[in-house]
Amino acid sequence: MSYFPSSYTLNAANPQNVDQVAFTIAPTTGTVKVQVVSGGSWYACTNTAGSVTCATTSPQATAATVNQLTVVAAQ
Fold it and tell me: Residue 37 is inside which H or E element, if any?
C-alpha cells in the first residue's frame, strides 16, 4: 500500500486548527484511519475510490502539535 501527497486544511476562523487531512491511496481500500500526532487520537476517514479525506476536528487537531501522518488501511 502507498499513499500520495497529503494536504492539510486549516480552519478558516482559526488557522491554528487543522480541520482535515486529504490524500490518495493505492490500491483503493475500504476502511482508513489516520493519526496526525504521535500517540494521539485516531480519526476515521472517508474513502471514495482511493481519494481519502479525514476530519480532524473531534478532538480538534492543532497545527502546533501535528508531527506525523500515520495511515492504517484495511480492505
Answer: none
Cα separation, 63 vs 36, in Å, equals: 10
2-18: pLDDT as tens digits: 777 789 999 999 999 99
CA 61/CA 55 separation, integer angstroms: 9
* Bond preceding residue 59 cis, omega within 30 of 0: yes
Question: Is the pLDDT assigned to residue 29 strictly greater than 70?
Answer: yes
- The pTM of this model reads 0.89
d(CA 26, CA 1): 6
Where do the domains of the chain lie?
A: 2-74
